[in-house]
Amino acid sequence: MGTMHRSGAPRRTNENAKVIITTILGIVFGTFIGITLPSVSFKINLPSALISSLDVAISDGKLLSGGDKSPEDFGSRKFPEIYVPTNPRGAELLPPGIVVAKTDFYLRRLWGEPNEDLKKKPKYLVTFTVGFEQRNHINSVVKKFSEDFQILLFHYDGRTTEWDQFEWSKSAIHISTRKQTKWWYAKRFLHPDVVSAYEYIFIWDEDLDVAHFNADKYIQLVKKHGLEISQPGLEPNNGLTWEMTKRRGDREVHKDTQEKPGWCSDPHLPPCAAFVEIMAPVFSREAWRCVWHMIQNDLVHGWGLDFALRRCVEPAHEKIGVVDSQWIIHKVIPSLGSQGKSENGKAPWQGVRERCKKEWTMFQNRLAEADKEYLGRMVKG
Fold it and tell me: What stretches pass through the bilayer (predicted)?
């Protein structure tokens, strides 16, 4: 027994030494593995398309986490390979998180924090196509719109800075191109993605008297009656063309009317229903997205468009209407007509009017041809 006790001591000493050495080697090896693990793991397990992306993120981790690297470091950084087919057209090479597909007309400061720029965001957009000669009238009209409305002026006479005599003009948006119509401006500057921040878009002429109009109450009635396309009622004795747009004094809103015998083949169709004029239309954001695409790029007067607006809402005879209790007066000032050119002995306004009528026919023909082509493809399958 004594011999066995004495001979076991060296063995235990050797085993203890082995354990210590193994432990030390394990720590060293583990440390080495821990240092090299990220790159080894990624290179073994992930597709090659992601290796470069992750390597960039790891090697540039300080930059991505808000480090203090210089602009030169950011510019020389390798970006990951990206292709996202669900991004907006043309933006497929960008990470979705950086894509901003829409914009607005909100004015921004040149200083401070971006999230502190706006004390209040206007909910509605009001546009007027104007000449400087109508400045005093427009000044009175704009005062009918509260801070919830962003004012945008399209200047067909090229005069913009003079409008700064009015305080509200300094926070309005001004776009100037000579001798153009409001539909020309609308097609180029009111793309649905540009005006998507606004619930309703007013596209108005400059010669509208608003003495009996309150914009906030108008919006309330439009929402109450579910109107996607609307206009204020017109004073019956001034510049009235259609019975549908005539103001009725016994109601808030109307959506249909009685026209001259034979004018309406269907009581739910224009000009007896589903109809407003192009002088003072108001569009919901959703309706405008459709209408904008229907506006022809080269037909600038918009004649005939009012008869086709019903294609953009369903059911049109319920969602298009006239707001009677907030009404306007059409002053019939042919200011844009004077922007025409005298040719063949005709007054400038005569050439403008002829173009208007011609465009109405052209628009009708284009729409009919588009319908025919579509239906033909459907029949062929």
Answer: 20-40
Q: What is the tens place of the pLDDT at every residue in 67-90? A: 556 666 667 778 889 999 999 999
Going from the C-alpha of 184 to that of each of 103, 222, 350, 361, the distances in angstroms are: 20, 26, 20, 18
Sign of the Cα torsion 111, 113, 117, 123 reads positive
Please measure the distance between the N-terminal and C-terminal CA atoms of the chain and give it in whole angstroms: 103
CA–CA distance, 150 with 120 (Å, rounded to integer): 11
- Facing residues of 153 across strands? 128, 174
**Would you list the DSSP string of 96-141?**
GGG-----------SSS-GGGS-S----EEEEEEE-GGGHHHHHHH
Say how far apart CA 233 and CA 246 lie, in whole Å: 6
Angle in degrees, CA 299, 303, 304, rounded to 5: 105
SS (H, E, C) 260-289: CCCCCCCCCCCCCECCCCCCCCEEEHHHHH
Residues 6+ apart with CB under 8 A from 281: 202, 203, 204, 229, 230, 231, 306, 309
Helix axes of 2-45 and 48-59: crossing angle, nearest 10 degrees = 100
Residue 206, token pair as written in the block = 């400059």
